[in-house]
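Q: I have 420 residues here and want to know how they pack in 3D. Can you give me a structure?
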Amino acid sequence: MKEQKQKNIFPMDFQWGVATSAFQLEGSPAADWATWDPVLAGNPAITGHYGRFREDLKLLKELGVNAYRFSIEWSRIQPREDTWDHGAISHYQEIIDILRGYNIEPMITLHHFTNPRWFAERYPWHRSKSIEKFLRFTEMMVSTLKGVRYWITFNEPYVILIGGYLEGCTPPGEQDVPHSLLALKNIFTCHGKAYDIIHRYVPDAQVSIAHNMSVFAPWKKWNPLDRLLKKSANYFYNHSIITAFQTGIFIVKFPFSRAVEIEVPIKGKLDFFGVNYYTRIHLRFNPFKKMGVELRHLDIDGHGLTNIGWEVHPRGLAKVLRYASRLNLPIMITENGIASHDSQEKVKYMKKHIDVIEKCLRDGLNIRGYFYWTLIDNYEWLLGFDARFGLYHVDFETLKRSPTAAASYYTYLIQSRSSL
């Protein structure tokens, strides 16, 4: 009897999926990122997914997943401000139809980091007109695409703000705190209004964001400045967004600065909460670094570092899921994965994190889905083509897809821990 209970801890309707991003698989000549990173000049189509999507969707059926999170590449839909590409819209509708034919639930991300170049040049996120332009795109997608209940408005909005407006390493390449606060207000205003638009067209829709959450720790526990950085980072990165969805007010406080309150129309505008989780970050006070913060990754627990130097820290997933449970909403783990050339490392990573989810379910957390990042090797933004997150290996010369041991292990996990 106890063994049967162990097997059935995952809910009957638990979503076992994988997550991808359109640009990272297929590129787009009209996107701002297409000219941002010079490495893309040599491989603009990346994995060739735009022309091979039917072949790649068959991999989902092979895996045995029942859900698939993917994004719409805005710059393909609206390559120019006054132009809608209906062929591109039909392309994404065909993806939805194929998924439905496989009994796989589609989850669409409307914005996954990239923007049309015209938008980036004329209406970047710190300008108020950005709201109108994004909502116009949202309404076009929701009114046109059929067969989608699950919608993510923005993937990792804080990463957009930190990379694009504080560090300046991603578009629009600014290092401007006031502009970052304007962009935060505009992006989350878009979410609140998009939530209403989606529910107007799809009354039973489930709408969220995919929020990147990390565990933070001081570089030296004895150093009060390191401990202060850890506390500030944990509040801003993990908790401020939760508070904002509860109150409609962002309280933004960067280290060694005064708090700023920003009102946004998002109170209660979530149907579930999407969590992207990868790692733990150690923080060190360094007066010679931007904002006095230096980020480090340490292999404290002995699980190793990933191919891109991130610490593998499975128990941190339980911590951030408990943070997310403050919202009293269903939780979806919308991304979780490891960059590694060694598929056995992917197997170990996956098993350890699924074990954590199982324990959290037994503790009463309302977790409704897990999406592994990612289906096939892709372009990993500023890290290029060699991060290797995929369950399927991609040879970027021939574009051949090959299953890794992690793909068959994920199939085994789904079958062994699913009640379906």
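Q: Anything worth noting?
A: The chain has a mean pLDDT of 95. The chain has 14 helices and 13 strands.
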